[in-house]
Amino acid sequence: MSRLERSIGAVLRGGVIVSSGCLGLGLVLSLIHVAPAAAGILLQVGLLTLIATPAARVVISIVEYTATREWPFVLLTTIVFLELLASAGAALIFNRRL
Amino acid sequence: MPPVTPALALIIFIAGGVAGALGALLGLGGGIFLVPFLNLGFNFPITTAAAISLTTVIATSSSVSAGRTGKQLINMRFGMLLEVATAAGSLFGGATAQFLAQSTLQRMFGVVAIVVALIMVSRLKRRNVILDPSIDPGVLGGRFYDEESGGVVTYQIKRLPVAIGASFLAGNVSSMLGIGGGIIKVPVLNAWCGMPMRAAAATSAFMIGVTATAGAIIYYGRGQIVPVLAAAAVLGVQLGSWGGMRFGQKASVMWLKVLMAGVLAVVSVLMFVRAAH
To answer: Which chain A residue has the Cα nearest residue B78?
Structure first.
């Protein structure tokens, strides 16, 4: 297995475990009305980890392709990362205007 | 939108489980079933339904791909190239969805549901494309051990512009309607671009995480992801797709495909009926 595949596998696995754990605990706490503040935070952390996992995988790819000097793929993965940033930008703009 | 109660969370958890299991058995994401369930069944705005469904798409992509790294089934280079197109499509689709009327999105979902049903029925017996293992896969092609044929399969990528176009469209539909978009990409990659079915499916599953994220960020920023319900849906889909993959590998899915194509045809009609009101 290449280093890229190993790191991507680790990032995805870690992201799934952390996000599912937070979402599961947050869901149970909020449904039984125990520690609502903590439940809310856990749910947000779970959702953000979930959304950040593919983004983290893209960042890891940029780093690994740079290390192996595969420049076309450094460029492609950087564009993908910029596209993800652009959607965050779009979300901010919409919140101001709509 | 109905109030968030434990009963509703439980129903969505179960619906997610069923959608995830069906998705794993049929090689689809669960979104194509989850979105109409939330929108038609519970009157959630279609943007909220799509937003919740997109979070389940991300979760499925991450967990399925984590288990597959190192088996050469996922073509990472080709996937990352196509992600440029799927993420652009998704960004554009997520932004567009904010401006479209609910009825327009419902009509679009109706069209996509019937297209998915037709693709499913037309590919009931589709098998892998197998090429000579001595071929040079090139920069974008790949090589993997295929259990079904018991040998190493090598493939080259053909018609790159077609793959890129299909990926943009898939990304667009994905974030506008809350589905993964694999049902659009996989048949195109398999039929026209030279990818064996299993590699196309694995690479698509790998890509949809990034694709859905580009859309989900917009929905999240707009506050359209209801945390408790998204959590219930994500956990349900995770459990369901795990079960579907664990126990459904050997199951004959032909009758299930026909049945689900029928369900999607009904969903399509209902979407048009609801849009007309």
So the answer is: A73
SS3 label, residue B178: coil
Tens digit of pLDDT at every position of chain B (277 positions): 778 888 999 999 999 999 988 887 777 778 888 999 999 999 999 999 999 999 999 999 998 898 887 778 899 999 999 999 999 999 999 999 989 999 999 999 999 989 888 887 886 655 445 556 667 788 888 888 877 677 788 888 989 999 999 999 999 999 999 998 888 888 888 888 888 888 888 899 999 999 999 999 999 998 889 999 999 999 999 999 888 877 766 566 677 778 888 888 988 999 999 898 8
Contact residues, B window 7-36, toward A, CB-based 8 Å cutoff: 9
* B58 vs B238: CA distance, rounded Å: 10
- Report the gap between the CA of A94 and the closest CA in chain B (Å): 7
Tell me if A87 and B218 make a contact (CB, 8 A cut-off). Answer: yes
CA–CA dist A97, B223 (Å, integer): 14
Angle made by CA atoms A58, B224, B80, in degrees to the nearest 5: 15
- What is the value of pTM for the model shown? 0.91
DSSP per-residue codes, B202-262: HHHHHHHHHHHHHHHHHHHHTT-S-HHHHHHHHHHHHHHHHHHHHHHTTS--HHHHHHHHH
3-state SS, A45-78, equals HHHHHHHHHHHHHHHHHHHHHHHCCCHHHHHHHH
Q: Any chain A CB within 8 A of the CB of B189? A: no
